[in-house]
Design goal:
The protein is α/β, with parallel strands linked by helices. It folds into two domains: 129 residues, 3-Layer(aba) Sandwich (Rossmann fold), CATH 3.40.50; 211 residues, Dihydrodipicolinate Reductase, domain 2 (2-Layer Sandwich), CATH 3.30.360. It is 37% helix and 28% strand. Strands 7, 8, 9, 10, 11, 12, 15, 16 and 18 form a nine-stranded mixed sheet that branches. A seven-stranded parallel sheet has the order 3-2-1-4-5-6-17, sandwiched between helices. A hairpin with a 2-residue loop joins strand 13 and strand 14. Helix 8 crosses helix 12. The longest helix is centred in the C-terminal third of the chain and has 18 residues. The model has no long low-confidence stretch (mean pLDDT 96).
Amino acid sequence: MKKVMVVGVGAQGSTIAKRLDEEANVSEIICADYDEKAAKDVAGQLKKAKAVQLNAKNVEEIIAAAEGCALIVNGLAPDFNMNVMDAALEVGACYQDLASGPVSDMDFVSAVKRCLGRSAEFEAKGLTALMNTGSAPGMANVLTRHGVDKLDSCDQIDIFVYDEIWSNKFIPFWWSPQTAFGDMAAEPIIYKDGEFIRVKPFNNPVMTEFKGVGLKRMVDHEHEEPVTMGLLSDKVLKGVKEVNFRYGGPGLELAESLYKMGLLSEDKLEVKGQEIIPMDIISKLTPPAPKYADEIQAVLDEGMVSEDGVFLVRVTGQKDGRTTKIDLYCYAPGLTDAFKKAGITHESYFTGQAAFLFTKMFVNDVITTKGCFPPECLEEKERTYYLSEAAKLDLLVDEIVETRLY
């Protein structure tokens, strides 16, 4: 029986906590958050949970709250990763987070390297720190390794996320608008031939054909996968030469227009004698994603325009001397189905359930490797467990293999 602490019980953290409440090997769940009301609201819905208010800027507070825990799940922004890692090492707990960048005090690649650089500390204490565990990054990394392992060598990895969950009620993003706009205005990273290359925002727009939804416009997007996969290319991905993460959808088209107008800038601008920051105005005026059941129901009552989406991992390389492409399409419930199943949005369902499955592996002693690493480093039996459990939550995967004969 394990005691688990979830730090940050927002959309994803609360989903993980609720699913942990159903696990036989979990004795207690600590729902910890700076917002005491949020922590109490989540804990109050569960049988095994208690709420704790803490400030994650203070490592000692995290340590005190995590006493006796076997696992700390970090549902906070990446700026808090080092603090939560410090606390996990101090109390002798395993560690899980959902993202490793961006952070405020260093560049994206350095932030990922900093997390990976703590592997020896966790290994020395016989602990596991699993980083980047959600849908993307997270499940995308598991699927990537699954595909790469079927090849003799890997030339290219492409991860595509297309989001066209679009309602009559204006909701451009189903997570924090400020985070969404910030991510889209950032310079994406491409891994190519041993180097990390920064490109301009909304770089390389290409119409891409997807099974079931047709041609969609996709652009380069800042994400963890090209970084971790580039760093681990020779170790677990058969020397992959290029890794790209690409994103598309109506929300991106909106963000691109605002970016071209200068409205996603963080620089001060004088307007009628007043100094403003354009990004602050846009973030303030953009409707937030619905969080509570009545808010989601109100969106559904107004009607949906589209519930299309694509989550595709494509690996290309050589198999038996022939060029082979493996497409791994993951299917998850849309907004309507996610709300019926769990009373949450599709974004919370997919990312939260995908993250929980890694937590489930921890509490059921499925993960045996020690140190700090992302999901593409998991062993085959661990990845098989993950995907089989994902199917039980209606996170289903189709595999399509194409081989050129000559």
